[in-house]
Fold this sequence. Notes:
- By secondary structure, the protein is an alpha/beta fold.
- It has a domain at 1-243: Rossmann fold (3-Layer(aba) Sandwich), CATH 3.40.50.
- Helix content is 44%, strand content 16%.
- The protein is built from 14 helices and eleven strands.
- It has helices at residues 16-30, 39-42, 62-70, 92-97, 107-121, 137-153, 175-189, 198-212, 225-240, 255-263, 297-307, 346-362, 367-372, 377-395, and strands spanning 2-3, 10-15, 54-58, 81-83, 127-133, 158-165, 192-197, 243-244, 278-287, 318-323, 335-343.
- The strands form three sheets. It has a six-stranded parallel beta sheet. Strands 10-9-11 form a three-stranded mixed beta sheet, sandwiched between helices. The protein has a two-stranded antiparallel ribbon with strand order 1-8.
- Helix 1 (16-30) crosses helix 9.
- It is globular.
Amino acid sequence: MHCHPAGMSAIWLQIGQCGNQVGQEWWKLVASEKAPGSAVDRYPFYTRDGKLSALSVDSEPKVVRRLLREVKTGSFRDSNILVGQRGRGNNWAFGYHGPRSEDENSLLHRAMDSFRKEVERRDSYSGVILLHSLSGGTGSGLGARLCESIREEFPMGYILSVAVAPHQGGECPLQHFNSLLCLSWLQRYADGVLLFHNDDVLRRMQASCGRKIEQVPALEPQISFSDMNTHIASCLAALMHPVRSLRTPRGTASWDGMLSSIVRTLPRHSSTGKIHQSTAVLAVARGSGADTFNCSLAPIMMKMKQGYGCVSWNPHPLNYWTDPWNIVDQTSPSQSLTICANHSSVSDYMQCVLEKARIMYDAHAYLHWYWKHGCEEGDFLQAFEILDSVVDEYSAAGDH
């Protein structure tokens, strides 16, 4: 039995520099010659003429040119490559509203026109996956506007945002405002958000590199943005590539040990000492011996339930998928275990965004850049209110 987590007829929409860089690594995995090649496996990602069911949108052409060089030649439809010649200045308002001189040929209108045509190419349309950042002007602002426009025009389709949050140390002075506004738009218009935090990704990769070079302590792992994008794409592939759940026990696999190493990295408490909990958890086991996941299901599920602090009010907080093909590591034999959880630790990040954005807002720092490009005071006040309510809901998650 095949299960398609991304939906049988989903469209992939990568927006801005970060979205297109993650998309580049995603398509290199999915469209590789070694990836499963049956029609059923490839259908979620390709249209009937063999083109990727994807749109690449950016306000500048440089990253998109690299994407087209790196991904298998001819995979992208020419009309689905949509670029401008002027960046969005790392400003959500500029990305959302666009230059005042733009008309029906604007990047937004061209993107929506191509999106409609891509929907028409599918036998049915189930939804869209957005790849974008929270901090860049195009990824956060235009990403939010496209999310809103798609929701209004295709209200029955699902919208899943794959959003990358910036380093807390700072990549851009406007990142807290951009993250605040983008997150509030996603809360209003998207059905779900897979959030990748750059600090968390870097920590996990450093820990992994540390284990690999522990025999040579003098080596310091050097991890680039490209490495981090590859890691994010690998997590997406492990979670969202089609799976085939098998029921016949065969061989053994150390799923318990893999789960233990994942659980150890989870934050246990908030900054105020409140215990973090999960409302829902999904495990995806891939690779040789994936069928043995079912043999030790009860203890694994119990460890997941305890490790992720599943709330008591959800009678069925756990789910799992298995597949014999490991899309992340295509050498054989290999195994991967990926966990996707609605974990309340995300509220720590949102609380930090709220606090830093409020300090800047109260000081009127940089606000003239947002007023200049069409933002209004009400946009900020509503964004603060929405994120405050999300943080409160996560805080009360275990109290129902």
